[in-house]
Amino acid sequence: MRHRVRAGFAGDSGAVVYSAGLVSRVFGAYVSRVLLAVADRGGLAPAARATRLIFLVSGIGMAAWAPMVPYAKARLGLDDAALGLVLLAFGGGSMLAMPLVGWLTQRYGNRRVIVVGGVLLCVALPGLALAARAVALATILFCFGMALGAVDVAMNAHAVDVERRAGRPMMSGFHGLFSVGGLSGALGMSALLALGLPLVAAAVLVAVLLAAVVVAQWSNLLDEVDATAARAKAFAMPRGIVLVLGLLCFISFLAEGAMLDWSAVFLREFRGFDAATAGIGYAGFSVAMALVRLVGDRVVSRIGPVLTVRLGAGVAATGFLLAAFVAWPPAALVGFVLVGLGAANIVPVMFGAAGRLPGASPGVSLATVTMLGYAGLLSGPALIGFLAQASSLPVAFAAVAGLLVLTAASARWVRA
């Protein structure tokens, strides 16, 4: 779910702060309309509000780690290769947890998994600032990834349940809060560190605040366990429409990973940006994605999920092609914004479709689809690197555009 905000904040901090201010103004209006609603159809206001807050907490918690990475590298004396190996523990923990969490959510309910996973996430965050050895950091990062993966699956399953009861699209709005959390988490932690707060103290402060939000939402989260689903298998090899949705999520997450890890490199090496400003491409992508997700539910309600995916994938593919083949530097920035605008609602729609599959547990279906999506986020940038080495980075971006065209052509599968 997913932006890990690493490369995007390595560039022009002024542009990022301005962009974050724009998000904050739009987000404030959104909060005043939905988070502070007194009533909602079917009495779902507390559950909907709790779901939004959990998505926000998850985004903040994940992104708060990004500004801590340089501190960990310096503290432990790691070179780039060693740091890369340590960082693999995060994705490994998330992917290992997801199949198990699908079973836990159907056996014990989403509420218990969300709260327990959220608290463990908050406990692990200060540990990342305290680890004194590479092995210890990798171990804590693995646990951090497991907790985040658990919350990820459970909160999406809970969101599907809330959306189903409300009888209207809500998933894009939930994911919009995750994107806002990603932006504000990285900027907030960076601001605390810039003000001179020690790393451990900043991590503890963020962790305590997030844990307080998670625990406070216990009574507002839905607490129902499907007796039939509770007897289902913990995990089954993906097949049928679950496999199709998972592969489409793989493509969408791969596109996000391309922006995360390669946008700054592309701007620096192919469009003449310097190192100080190359990060503005990912910032534009992130802000565009967050803003569109906040209004995405209305878009899905008006044009339907199939057309939303079809148009979104087409716009994102156009953005990659524009950036790759139009040599004018501003065209690359416009292209990256188009990728954010187009890709914003693809994953929320896919997750919603997976959670509504007839005869299947939402937790298990979402665990499978999420795991395949994370595989795209983690392995995609490496695949792009191999393709770029064999040809060029613009050609690799064009290949991602081709995969997004395939996603547009397969949009009919989200009717589930």
For the record, the CATH architecture stands as: Up-down Bundle
CATH top level label: Mainly Alpha
Poorly predicted ranges (pLDDT <50, ≥5 residues)? 1-20, 29-42, 227-232
CATH superfamily: MFS general substrate transporter like domains
The helix/strand series, from N terminus to C terminus, equals HHHHHHHHHHHHHHHH
- Name the beta content range: under 5%
Number of H/I helices: 16
Name the overall outline. Answer: globular
Count up the domains: 1
Largest sheet: none
Query: How would you state the average pLDDT, rounded?
Result: 82
Describe this structure in words.
The chain is an all-alpha fold and 416 residues long. The chain has one domain (7-415): MFS general substrate transporter like domains (Growth Hormone, Chain: A, Up-down Bundle). It is built from 16 helices and no strands. It has helices spanning 13-35, 45-63, 69-76, 80-108, 110-130, 134-166, 171-194, 199-216, 240-270, 280-294, 296-303, 305-325, 329-343, 346-355, 362-390, 393-409. The protein is globular, with a radius of gyration of 20 Å.
Topology readout:
Elements: H1 13-35, H2 45-63, H3 69-76, H4 80-108, H5 110-130, H6 134-166, H7 171-194, H8 199-216, H9 240-270, H10 280-294, H11 296-303, H12 305-325, H13 329-343, H14 346-355, H15 362-390, H16 393-409
Helix pairs in contact: 1-7, 1-10, 2-5, 2-6, 2-7, 2-8, 4-5, 4-6, 4-15, 5-6, 5-8, 6-15, 7-10, 7-14, 9-10, 9-13, 9-14, 9-15, 9-16, 10-13, 11-12, 12-13, 12-16, 15-16
